[in-house]
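Standup notes
- DV: blocked on the single-chain target, sequence here:
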Amino acid sequence: MVHLLRYWANTFPNKVAFYLTDGESDDETKLTYAELDHAARAIAVRILQKHPVGSRVLMLYPPGTLEFIAGFFGCLYAGCIAVPAYPPRRNRKGARIQGIAEDCQAALALTTQDAVNQILRDENMRNETETMELIGTDSIDRSIAIQFNEIPILDSNLAVLQYTSGSTGQPKGVMLTHGNLIRNCEIISTLFGEHHTSIGLSWLPTYHDMGLIGGILAPLFFGATLVLMSPMTFLQRPVRWLRAISRYKATTSGGPNFAYQLCVDKVTDEELQGLDLSSWRVAFNGAEPVRASTIEQFSQRFASVGFRNESHLPCYGMAETTLIVTGGPHHHAPVLKSFNGRQLDARSVVPVAADDPTARKLVGCGVTTANTKVLIVDPESRKPLADNQIGEIWVDSPSVGLGYWEKPDVTQEVFHASTHDGDGPYLRTGDLGFLSEGQLYVAGRVKDLIIVRGVNRYPQDIEQTIEECHESIQSSAAAAFADDSGPRERLIITVEVQRSLEDDWNPVVQSIRRAVTANHEIPPDAVVLVRHGSLPKTSSGKIQRHACLKGFREGSLRVVHQWLSWEEGLFDGPPMIAAATVNELKDGFAPSGIHPKKTRDPDPDVVELVKRAVRSVAQERAKLLDLDTNVIVDLGLDSLERLQIAHFLENSVEGRIPEDLLQEIETIREIAEAIEGTFGKEKIREGVRMLEPDAAQERTISPEDYRFDMLPEYKRLKQTMQQMEMTGLPNPYFSIHQGLTRDTTLVDGQKRISFASYNYLGMSGDPEVTQAVVEATQKYGTSVSASRLVSGEKDIHRELEKQIANWIGVQDSIVMVGGHATNESVIGHLVGQQDLILHDSLSHNSIVQGAILSGSRRRPFPHNNFEALDAILLEQRKRHRRVLVIVEGVYSMDGDFPILPKFIEVCKKHQCWLMVDEAHSIGTMGKTGRGISEHFGVDPNDVDIWMGTLSKSFGSCGGYIAGRFELIEYLKYTTPGFVFSVGLSPPNTAAAIASINVLRKDPARVTRLKEAARLFLTEAKKRGLNTGNSSETPVIPVITGNSLHALQLSRRMIDSGVNVQPILYPAVEESAARLRFFINSTHSNQQILYAVDKCAEFLKQIAPESFRLSEPN
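- DV (later): unblocked, structure below
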């Protein structure tokens, strides 16, 4: 490369080699080939004054300067080895830079003089560079270039140590020779069709292999001209990239896939005006998985401004191969092909039509050149594979580096691989792929490497951060991996946790999100907490990340709690904790900067503008903002989102924030102080006045905001349905029942034993109940046709409410038209924002929804754990006006029940309301079916609020609240769900009254129900079925621990004449997937034994391991 630069400096001395642009103004900096040669010689002289040939020299230049190029070539002119690295940042612990410096024994670092001064002022930056001499190359007297004596340089001499990005623990520097650089530039020249008249444009970081080799060295190899802009310039406003291409008539430019997607997502119609992309011949795309959807969208979006689809040039490469391995060929449209996704996951290549439901579209990453060989090899047997077979990608090329600096063992393993018959050496890339019709397709990774926006992250570093961020996470209990099945590569984290008294997992999730974001500058996309010991491991105890990814995609992880960023709108937990609590983090994971105390706060108008900017980007994450909120640590914003904030502010004040500030400001205070110091208060206040009150919340309206077929929620539903269809099993839901459902039902003309309905006492279909309905309909009609408050009150309403109150043993009751609505209406009406709701962690959806609608603080306590409830109340009771505690008489998923006397005792102790939802316990518990109070022999008046439904034991439909006169009177006159709703229909009212009368006369039905439930449970346990915690209730689960197995088991049961429904994730944890059996008093012993036998028989065939599952805690 030294000889090339000197050649071009002599041949075209005055030709501009590099421009530097800000992407907006006409201001630009130029550097000719002669000027670059002169500067490089001067820098080389300065280096050699104190350091010998062969020294390793860190390149710590900030982005947005041409000085990096002069420093880089000055290093090569001196016969030294350049080590590009990301420059240190203020208030950042520089473990990565320090690790690189120690690994390569660097004694010298080159940067700008401003950066040197900044490093010396900052303690962290100073500490990480204290073992090196710092030289600001722009302060070197260029006249000393005359002293330069050319150093003999061979192709085999080391030129660059290219450290693979991401690792802080064990940095690996790829050793690249001068010959490697030349050979790779030759490959680029061939694949891209470049020459000295080409004009390149790059915003890529110069410490990154694509930015250094593709952005700087390749154009210089051709003798071409390159236009540079800072990465910040592009990321903050993507249209600047396209405008620069248009302005300079660039022929070659590119970046990772995310850059193209960012343009698609962020460039507006207005910004398209005036663009001309017709000069853009080569749009290379690499460094991360290339997505077909991005290629298609980009071509469609920018076709109107001259972009041609054939300009796309997907490519493949890595630091170990200097840069590129395959690409192109240029001037050909990219190759996009569809394959069966499930077969790809199984390492099998099966082409399918694009509209096939299993289709996964892959992008061909190009062809090889004559001197490069790509081999697809079985990574286990090391046997080469034929075309259209998936294996590890091995490379033999003159641009493959010598190995990793000072790491001979890893070098031997990675750089000197041989096939089973001794052919080699090859570089093992760790990537999976296949060859088809000359094109290389990348299908995944063997190595556990996370690539996000072109930058590598090593999972072991992230996992170490996770294990140290919260006390409930143990060593070797976390797995970090990438999932590329969505629109972009996503960081997924799975963590094993122990069940404990603390079942509120939100603090654990928040700690993980904060720690990973703060230390690795990449916010997780999903955090999945799983049962302890459930993550797949090797025999030596090492977590298998690929198996974790498979479990995540298939939904087979034993999930305890999860947070998914793409469902954050549905997430009802607290926001990421604001700055006030950040200092409570462990020292190793505290925010990087300790803010010095300020003599004054920033101007309130400036702070308000900053908060609007943050809310416009962070949206629901920005619920709590104060001056010390850290947008990285507290809100989990990534680098692109932070630049969107800057873009909002720049538009507001019609100015430009200096790039050196953009990298340093993280808190609301810092951002406010930075823009106040840059633009002044008056200009900012004018910007605030220009904003309408809701301007910060404005967004582009897309079809998914108003078209039901485009709703993200609907699309998720359809994806779930498609996944179910892929099992080949019929949809188990909404099957049509053609008659009365008691112990049997009629479906598709076939009679089946029914365990899917909660007609517990056979009241629905009972002749006496049916006759009462007929008579009530004849007398009152089918509807009361009004709210009861107005004119819909009937005497049978009063009779039913009296019957319910007497049956339970309390003063009064109120009936409503639906059980779910009863909970939503009453809970939301009795408590408000000053109050607290504590409910069992397994509470029914209606309870949770009612709590959310109330606006109260809501907190679940561990299932059936009255001691945990007591501990929470001890801490929280006096902080709230009212506290409502809610439990259920029988839990409808697990068939267990609370120890009611203990909950009464705790609530009396703390002066709280106790509400018991008896939907599944009224009529089924107690000697005569009067519910859980009868079961325990407690005074019903010790419970403040009784809730129940009429659809289960009472053969009707509706819900009720029972308790003291005052409570019921208040609800009747003020509850919106009662006052503004039609009254319970006469037929339903009459059915419930008749059912209570029948039960009073025939309590043996309750006895029969208990006997039937006991028989089913006993026989199921005898056969080894996992029935969880069910006891003494008619709700009995058979837990499969896998949704697919539950679906398959349900189908086989139905085919054998037993109707029982599966309960799948996310209705329950994946590890708790099950069949749920509702036992009715009408079931015969023969029906029960037949069902249990078939269930055990089929489950042994489907999942014999289910019989070995331990019962859940």
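- Follow-up: The radius of gyration is 35 Å.
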